[in-house]
Design brief:
The chain is α+β, with helices and mostly antiparallel strands. Among the domains are: 78 residues; 58 residues, Nucleotide Exchange Factor Grpe, Chain A, domain 2. 45% of the residues lie in helices and 18% in strands. It has three helices and six strands; from the N terminus they run αααββββββ. The chain has a three-stranded antiparallel sheet. A three-stranded mixed sheet has the order 2-6-3, with no helix packed on it. Strand 4 and strand 5 form a beta hairpin. The radius of gyration is 42 Å and the shape is elongated. The mean pLDDT is 84.
Length: 198
């Protein structure tokens, strides 16, 4: 019988923490937690020491958030720069690939011109001028001239001919011209090279 009386006396404590009163619909004032024994009562001013600690914590938080914001801004700027650089590199690579695929036609036009097939005013001459003009618009320049020093970065030696008149490797003849697109080598020039005779 005594156990039954104890159970009836120990009813659960229910705390209603809702901000809106369900009966009246009014907004309730927030209530302080009962477990915060060290917190000052509502309306009670903070001690000077607590105020200094609170101000320091706020200052540290603001400094940390500012640092995070500046880091995020720097990462965004770096990301945009990297995306723009990659976009430009991809664009240049696609243009170079298209031009590389059309170089055999340029070679045929150059051979036709060398054989005298491209005469002034002929339809094929006009086509050749338009194609060359379009390539120049993208910055395509020819590499490899007879008599210039041999540079393995831009020239591919197909034949080496000993010559006592030269002191450095020199282009003797251009077999197939090379092309640069800006600073990118699209195709090296195939050349015959005079090498110093021993």
């Amino acid at each position: 019988m005594a156990d039954t009386e104890n159970n009836e006396e120990q009813e659960p404590v229910i705390r209603d923490k809702r901000r809106i009163d369900p009966e009246t619909g009014d907004v309730r004032e927030p209530q302080a937690e009962a477990s915060d024994e060290d917190a000052p009562a509502e309306g009670e001013p903070l001690s000077d020491e607590d105020q200094v600690l609170l101000d320091q914590a706020a200052t540290d938080l603001v400094a940390e958030m500012r640092s995070d914001m500046l880091r995020a801004q720097a990462e965004l700027v770096n990301f945009r720069t990297r995306v723009e650089r990659d976009r430009q590199a991809n664009r240049d690579a696609v243009i170079a690939e298209v031009i590389r695929s059309l170089l055999p036609a340029m070679d045929d036009l150059a051979r036709a011109e060398a054989h005298g097939d491209l005469v002034e005013g002929a339809p094929l001459t006009l086509v050749a001028q338009k194609i060359r003009g379009a390539f120049e618009k993208y910055g395509l320049t020819q590499v490899g001239e007879k008599g210039e020093p041999f540079d393995p970065s831009f020239h591919e030696a197909v034949v080496q001919l000993p010559n006592p008149d030269v002191t450095v490797n020199t282009i003797a003849d251009v077999i197939e011209p090379g092309y640069l697109l800006g600073e990118r080598l699209v195709r090296p020039a195939k050349v015959a090279v005079f090498v110093p005779a021993e």
